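$ ./design --mode recover --in tokens.txt
reading tokens...
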């Protein structure tokens, strides 16, 4: 499957920038759409000015307004989105979250790196993480 578009549902600007950098660095012909929470993502997918069906959704779990699990529950209620590959990318490694999203038909669960001394992200770590994971996702489709 050739990926032509990705919807990134992520409230952390660093993660958005890291993915944009990786797509540019790899010279991928991929259109990237971004939403900062589940409400915005559903609007992009179903709203008045909706985007074309993305090939892949990269989904954070911890977001304001509508978190990733709530978004995924709403998305899976609409059978027209069943074929969309959803990869969860989160800093949380909570077993109950993992079990819940697995039951909702995700394609992968990826743990984002943190700096454990101050619980923050580093730009170089995020860029490397995004580069590695995006390559892995694209090869798995």
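writing sequence...
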């Amino acid at each position: 499957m050739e990926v032509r578009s990705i919807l990134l549902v992520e409230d952390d600007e660093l993660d958005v920038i890291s993915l944009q950098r990786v797509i540019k660095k790899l010279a991928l012909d991929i259109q990237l759409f971004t939403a900062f929470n589940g409400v915005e993502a559903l609007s992009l997918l179903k709203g008045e000015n909706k985007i074309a069906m993305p090939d892949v959704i990269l989904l954070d779990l911890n977001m304001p307004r509508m978190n990733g699990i709530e978004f995924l529950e709403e998305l899976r209620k609409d059978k027209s989105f069943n074929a969309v590959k959803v990869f969860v990318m989160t800093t949380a490694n909570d077993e109950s979250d993992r079990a819940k999203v697995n039951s909702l038909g995700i394609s992968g669960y990826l743990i984002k790196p943190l700096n454990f001394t101050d619980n923050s992200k580093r730009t170089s770590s995020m860029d490397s993480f995004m580069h590695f994971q995006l390559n892995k996702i694209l090869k798995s489709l």
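exit 0
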